[in-house]
Amino acid sequence: MGRVDRREIPRDMSGGNRYLIFLRRSRGGCGIPYETAKAELISLFEENILDIAEEYWTKHRLLVTINLPPDEVKRRAELAGYIEAILSVHEEPYMGEELRSQSKGRWRVGWVRIGDRRRFQREIYLQDDEERLRLSPDKRPFKVEVNGKVILAKGHKHHRGLSPLDARFLLNLARLKGDELILDPFAGFGGIVLEARRRRLNIIASEVDVSLRMGLEEVSGGRCLIADARRLPFKSKTFDAVVTEPPYRREQRGAVIEAMEEICRVCKEEGPIVMLISQSMAAEAVKRLEELGREVKGAHPVRRHGGLICRAMLF
Question: Residue 277 belongs to what domain range?
């Protein structure tokens, strides 16, 4: 059983309901580190988690006490990228009676025996796999202009697509209230923009690659522009938050690091900056942002296609 970092959890133990939470172990053939999935859970429920009674990091499973009713737990879980299922649980002394349950793969529903206790487990949230697959970059065509013609490109092939689960994770790290004005200055194929719009968040997409204009206009509902992230056409402190995934190519590294100053300029000082950045570029980005007065508040590994390791970083 893994250790619980008590600094992450408020210690008020009164009230609350118990939930068995199953975190995703992979998406799109890429593994999801346990601590990364747990970080998203904390970001969604941190003020309401009273206790983590059991934590099995090898199984991506936690038994958590949350002072929220099932309907609200389900609503928040629907925003998550890395939560696969949540079960409400109720425990009683086990008196030797026959218990019946049904296997659902990683979990069981119904009555199960836990030592000298019996536990009733009921599904209250299951991640929608059909929606996840429909929105994945290798399924979602994106309009790209090439030599005067419009082609329908797929994300992973062109290295500009972001999994919808990763996009949800990045937005959750920002801990948004819902009324913020958000900027994605490296919008690419619009994965973050699509998820923000699904949540009815106010987001503007910016991208330097003019060939992506038509596709971005479509996914952003027209709230996009072609602009160099090093010279953004916005007044200082325009945005409440920045959530983005800079390009990973080696030849673009200098431009990405140079853009950090401009990103800090257009974001309010108290506003979160969340970036999914390649591990090879992370140290340089952190150094520059710290020089600009930002501090690292979170850094979580995210595995991408092709063996690429990235860091989801909160400043």
Answer: 131-314
